[in-house]
């Protein structure tokens, strides 16, 4: 493949080039991936929540930032971002082979206020404490709601710091991170194994972004999706989003309600009094068990 001119890619570029770049460098920036009308709506819907949400507490989140989740309820304009076909394709190729289905791990609005220091560098996958991960557990998409600049806290990221051939590669301590500058409406996509940090904000104004991350369907998600979107709320979402937030079984028999598909709770008739436990198995296991059963 011809070398890409820089880390900026347009949505017209085909996905295989994007995935190649993501796997090689651990990140890729897609310029202006969201429609301007979506950006405008997101700004309008997010602002009242930024005004009413108290500042974060803790050295990881950072005391001079504001964050909140549950974005499907707070800003419905986010729906097309979560199910963006471009991101879907990436998820299917990178996470898809390692699970029955991938899930929505988190939606989070992040505002880095003026004078905020740099966040501690980290890999988002470290929340799952398995030391040697043989494949990616998470894909992160950070949507720029404001322009991300060197001064206002654009994400710092260490290219090539992601897993290579099953090993975690740690950048040389002297390696400087790259600054993920991008115009509002763009998306920074990076792997869960890529080292990064929210930048220090030395500008006069804040920097706002939205994190949408996806993880393997058999992992505990960062945001508790069933509390964020209980059945009475989830019932009104499109099926694709109900699936993404986990109202379905992950084979074998994982994530059920009364050993049944949890989507049963989305019916308007409410909670059934009792249900038959029903296997959800991969076809090869199902076939083996059937054969053994019939030969008893
Ligand atoms: O806001 C940013 O630039 C990055 C935030 C981040 O990496 C995190 O909160 O995990
Ligand atoms: Fe992070």
TrEMBL record:
* One matching Pfam family: PhyH
Gene3D superfamilies according to UniProt: q2cbj1_9rhob like domain
User: Which parts of the chain are coiled coil?
Assistant: none
**CC cofactor:** Fe(2+)
A Gene Ontology molecular function term for this protein is:
2-oxoglutarate-dependent dioxygenase activity
Q: InterPro entries attached here?
A: Phytyl_CoA_dOase-like (IPR008775)
What protein name is recorded for this chain? Phytanoyl-CoA dioxygenase
* Organism, as annotated: Iodidimonas nitroreducens
């Amino acid at each position: 493949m011809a070398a890409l001119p820089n880390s900026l890619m347009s949505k017209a570029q085909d996905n295989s080039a994007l995935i190649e770049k993501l796997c090689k460098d651990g990140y890729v920036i897609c310029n202006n991936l969201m429609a301007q009308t979506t950006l405008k709506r997101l700004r309008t819907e997010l602002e009242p929540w930024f005004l009413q949400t108290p500042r974060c507490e803790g050295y990881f989140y950072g005391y001079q930032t504001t964050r909140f989740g549950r974005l499907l309820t707070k800003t419905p304009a986010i729906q097309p971002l979560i199910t963006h076909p471009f991101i879907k394709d990436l998820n299917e190729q990178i996470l898809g082979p390692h699970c029955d289905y991938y899930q929505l791990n988190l939606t989070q609005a992040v505002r880095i206020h003026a004078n905020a220091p740099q966040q501690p560098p980290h890999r988002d996958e470290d929340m799952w404490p398995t030391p040697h991960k043989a494949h990616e557990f998470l894909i992160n998409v950070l949507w720029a709601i404001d322009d991300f600049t060197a001064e206002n806290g654009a994400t710092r990221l260490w290219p090539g710091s992601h897993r290579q051939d099953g090993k975690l590669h740690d950048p040389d301590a002297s390696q400087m991170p790259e600054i993920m500058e991008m115009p509002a409406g763009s998306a920074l996509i990076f792997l869960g194994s890529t080292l990064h940090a929210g930048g220090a904000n030395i500008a006069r104004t804040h920097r706002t972004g939205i994190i949408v991350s996806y993880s393997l369907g058999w992992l505990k998600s960062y945001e508790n999706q069933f509390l964020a979107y209980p059945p009475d709320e989830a019932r009104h979402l499109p099926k694709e989003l109900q699936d993404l937030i986990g109202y379905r079984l992950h084979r074998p028999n994982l994530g059920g309600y009364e050993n049944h598909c949890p989507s049963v709770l989305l019916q308007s008739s409410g909670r059934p009094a009792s249900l038959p436990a029903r296997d959800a198995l991969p076809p090869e296991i199902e076939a083996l068990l059937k054969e053994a059963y019939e030969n008893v």
